[in-house]
Amino acid sequence: MNSFLRATAVIVVIGVTGGNIHAQGNPSSPPLTITEFVSEVLATHPGVSTRESGRDAGLHRVPQAGALPDPVIGLGVMNLPWGSFSFDQMDMTMKTLSVTQMFPAPGVREARTTLSERAVDVAEQEIAVTRETLSRRARLLYLDLYDIEQALEIVSENQTLLETFIRISEARYRTGGGIQQDILKARLEHSRLTEKTIHLEAGYAGARSAMNILRGRPAGEEFDLVELSGPGAPLPGAEELLLTARANNPVLLKASAMVEQSEAARALAERATRPALSAATSYAQRDGGRRNLISASVMVQVPLWMGRKQARAVDEREALTRETRYRQLEMELGIRDSIHRLQSRFEESRRLIRLYAAEIIPESEGVLSSTLAGYQVGQVDFLTLLSAQATLFNYQLESIRVMTDYHRHLIEMEAVLGTAIPESGIDELSGNGS
Predict the structure, then answer these.
(1) Phi/psi at 81 (nearest 5 deg)?
(2) Which pLDDT tens digit goes with each residue over 252-298?
(3) In sequence order, which residues have a C-beta less than 8 Å from that of residue 195 and are 6 or more positions away?
(4) CATH code, domain with 158
(5) Per the CB 3.0–4.6 Å rule, which of 127, 145, 257, 397 could disulfide with 207?
């Protein structure tokens, strides 16, 4: 489309430059690719480090969970006479040293360890979810800036074309072949595009700032973007995509890890119904030549109120496990719906890209070229020429929107699947940094 506008200007012997000044942010450095941008975001964003620190804390909790409770050491005095406070007056006066150790019910320590390990698994998947979320956000921001950049280029080239129309209408007016209204109409259309440029430039600055802030750079730092490629092969079938999502989608994998965590908590609650044991031993020292004494005992925790406590805890954990499983199924239904919806939109955008490239844009260019030639010889009025130019302009903007929509749908689909789609036609856009 850029070459057509330049060629149109050549027809009327008016030089057209029409370059994209917004794409030349920093000519001395290579353009920023989407893979580089995503990698930079994932390397610098504190959200990833936050989740990793939480995971590390969970790893430190695993050995704690399986450890025995600390023993209790006691020092005491027994049967000391009141008043005299003599240690050798009575046979049973003694100084004692005791040690008590509590032993959880069999299997409880192992169950606690398993529960802590499952919590670490959930934290690992939370890291993956965060990385995928940041990757998706970064890639969509990249597309937003690309969309605005391309729109600015189209507006700039159409402004140059309208300047050509103004010169033609002015030349015809001077020779008596045109009317002043043609000049005014062309200038009004040019001003309208200037207004659109102002809005687009504001959006461009905001999108660029959002990208820089996301990757921890100064908001005003300039950079270039790479060109988007055209559509690739069609997507696989919905069932194949669903299998891929089940194996790779971080949200589903986190839900699965949460189910395992809930089952581990239920197993711990079941083992907690068994009685815990406590073993104690003590040494008693007596004065007055009397023999010292040793004592030992074992205490059993009796689950006397099991029906109201431990059994209820097991029921609670079973209910929570069912809730977690149903949430997992609910998420899978949402994933299935997203796959079918995005698959339809992806194919729609893919077909529209080919339609615009093969038919709509070339035909609109042909109409404008023919109308311009007719206007130069007085066979077509100026309003028809402006209408042809506006039609091509709108189709050019729509073709950019269709192209970016295609890539957006593909990014959304890859976020749903949790992995890149091979032969998608945008390998440069399919990096999630994982």
Answers:
(1) -60, 135
(2) 999 999 999 999 999 999 998 899 999 999 999 988 888 999 999 99
(3) none
(4) 1.20.1600.10
(5) 145
